[in-house]
Design goal:
Blueprint (H helix, E strand, L loop, with lengths): L5 H10 L4 H15 L8 H12 L3 H9 L5 H8 L4 E6 L7 H9 L5 E6 L6 H4 L1 H12 L2
Parallel strand pairs: 1-2
Helix pairs in contact: 1-2, 2-3
């Protein structure tokens, strides 16, 4: 099942296009869709992310978007009791985490789900202290 929201679905073909200008613009749009409320406070970080992403060629991006993965060993571990912490923001522009939550809920019997209000795709960046707090609480339980 595809977890991508329309934002990401629309970016995919642009990220691998031969049109160099549009491919670069798509990389900027991708970075912007990971950080909600990008402003002067995080502008330098945004520029670093765009710069790093601009060095990936179309084949690298295609591989990242289309590589096949077998989730069954992980799901089996989840059914066997492997603990899972699922953190996500309710304002993620790229992924439908409600669908992801439903998928992992079928397999993980020992899970904790934390939804951070206003959090985007770069939850670790936008809500660093809350994410660290949740991870520390989870690993010390």
């Amino acid at each position: 099942m595809d977890l991508a929201k329309d934002c990401l679905k629309n970016l995919r073909p642009r990220l691998i296009t031969d049109d160099v200008a549009d491919a670069l613009k798509a990389r900027i749009d991708f970075v912007d869709s990971t950080i909600n409320d990008c402003n002067a406070e995080n502008w330098d970080d945004r520029l670093l992310w765009v710069g790093a992403f601009s060095h990936l060629n179309a084949n690298d991006v295609l591989n990242a978007m289309s590589r096949q993965q077998d989730p069954e060993p992980l799901f089996a571990a989840g059914r066997g009791g492997l603990r899972l912490l699922h953190l996500y923001g309710d304002a993620d522009q790229q992924l439908d985490n409600v669908v992801a939550e439903a998928q992992v809920s079928r397999h993980f019997i020992n899970k904790k789900v934390v939804v951070i209000k206003g959090g985007g795709h770069a939850l670790f960046y936008e809500f660093q202290s809350q994410v660290v707090e949740e991870i520390l609480a989870f690993v010390t339980e």
